[in-house]
User: Fold this.
Amino acid sequence: MSRTIPCATTIAEIRATLGQSRDRGATVGLVPTMGALHEGHLSLIRAARAENDVVVVSIFVNPTQFGPNEDLKHYPRDLAGDRALSAEAGADVIFNPPEEEMYPGTFSTWVEVEGLTDGLCGRSRPGHFRGMCTVVTKLFNICQPDRAYFGEKDAQQLAVIARMARNLDMAVQIVPCPTVREPDGLAMSSRNARLAPEQRAQAPALYEALNAARVLVGAGQRSTAVLDRAMRSILAEASLGEIDYLEIVGADDLVPVPTIAGECLIAMAVRFGPVRLIDNIRVQG
Amino acid sequence: MSRTIPCATTIAEIRATLGQSRDRGATVGLVPTMGALHEGHLSLIRAARAENDVVVVSIFVNPTQFGPNEDLKHYPRDLAGDRALSAEAGADVIFNPPEEEMYPGTFSTWVEVEGLTDGLCGRSRPGHFRGMCTVVTKLFNICQPDRAYFGEKDAQQLAVIARMARNLDMAVQIVPCPTVREPDGLAMSSRNARLAPEQRAQAPALYEALNAARVLVGAGQRSTAVLDRAMRSILAEASLGEIDYLEIVGADDLVPVPTIAGECLIAMAVRFGPVRLIDNIRVQG
Assistant:
């Protein structure tokens, strides 16, 4: 039988809980999520469990990071399931605020990272990173964690949050965690459940393309044009998918590079109908 | 003989100092300043002294809140004098970082409050409040104060910071402190020292106009058009001054009101040559 962990729904409540822990010298690890937890999230919770005295998992489907035509309404929600999975993975407390607790009527303050948010996912999701940075800042201020855990699958999100935390001198360590994959290579995502069977069957093409690029780089290939062509030919096999972007950028500044030099990020987004999947790997030139 | 207080110039240094205090349960009060301290600042330091175990005064002329045609270069600086005055008023430590400590090369993150920053000073100082909110967020994250002290002279700044702190769930209490005035009514400001003698002689007109409005409101006048005309006729006497704005707005949303109802802010900015002075009062309808 799994243990039941408390679930705070107000800011005052989670502050009181974590404040008591901090007062007795405990360290706090935060895993911010939008719920619909899968193995990827659970790996973050386990990492937080190993490094902190108290682990809080926030579950909040943040409306300000969804565009007007995006899937906010269809975003999967399962609080009871998430709570049980979080407990099993080692979380101590859930923070699950209603929308009006996080965004009261007079809300008008935004945190924005410029430059890093222009390309990749930022191009097709205007406002997404502004909403994400704002809610993460709020969660940091509410929970005051010593460490916060983010998956490398959302590479741009991770780069943006790391830059934001550094630029604003936030007293939190940003801990990146490796992407967790299905046996066929598809990166775990809450959105995978919305793929039709034929789409799901083609979705591993993303990681296949990335792996092909990794092999080419390992064999000495440095031209991003060559890598791009190789990946597009593999993605073309996934006839139900439509490439949103496929880019090779510097790992720190996310600016496209003509040749692989230093640490680079190869990142892509592919749409299968209404479901947009992202994936990436890092390569070294 | 005045005591000498330490002056931290790096983020690591001030964090270590304040962290030790917090570890033994001390409360921290922050007074953010741009230096050139006058009685107004000293009243903030004294208020902080009365309410906290440790008082830190930050002295940082924040470049990102000055516009390209503003007086960043001419802003008065006197660290030794400020340090002595701060000590005398009860401060425990100064934080005086160089510009590159606060804004390293890859700085690209901004905190912005929308709406509240459009009118009043925001209209003639685009980007000012974004820079101010960003540096105050950084100072809050660096010093993690229990309370932070701001003067009511900068009424819009105070409203913007209060909104920002509330919206972003910052764990700090924003404490407003009354405007401190010269014997002739002129609000204390680091910029007053730059007025030529004839300008200085006319500068009390701002407060005279505000006081006239207060008297009229006290006598039952509720029309902002009438108050506006009365104030402009007084300001016209200050022939060397040019009105930048003169507005009567709701105290919370800073939106212009046609009649005085509830708590309202009467705020103005007047230019004497290159020196821009601001002042305000609150009235109740």
Notes: The mean pLDDT of chain B is 96.
